[in-house]
Task: inverse folding
């Protein structure tokens, strides 16, 4: 019985580790300045504070707040999928503090 429980715990642990390593990142919000927008292709190039440029894609399930425009500040959360950075959430413009 103890072996069965131990085996079940090990299998559950392996499943959690396996799911954590899928390559998708839903962590903290990123931000930068939009340097290029392709509305037809649903993509934009975002330059971060470190100078690194990232091509960000969005789709119909992306929560898009505002209209992406060159020169605008953008805040986003993205996941790597099929070798592309696909946004799950995008906010164009300055972030307003939440009111209570």
Result:
């Amino acid at each position: 019985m103890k072996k069965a429980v131990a085996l079940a715990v090990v299998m559950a642990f392996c499943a959690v580790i396996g799911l954590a390593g899928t390559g998708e990142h839903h962590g903290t919000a990123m931000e930068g300045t939009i340097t290029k927008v392709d509305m037809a292709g649903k993509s934009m190039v975002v330059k971060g504070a470190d100078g690194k440029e990232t091509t960000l894609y969005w789709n119909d399930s992306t929560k898009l707040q505002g209209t992406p425009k060159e020169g605008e500040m953008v805040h986003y959360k993205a996941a790597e999928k099929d070798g592309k950075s696909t946004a799950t959430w995008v906010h164009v413009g300055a972030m307003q503090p939440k009111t209570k």
The chain has one helix and six strands.
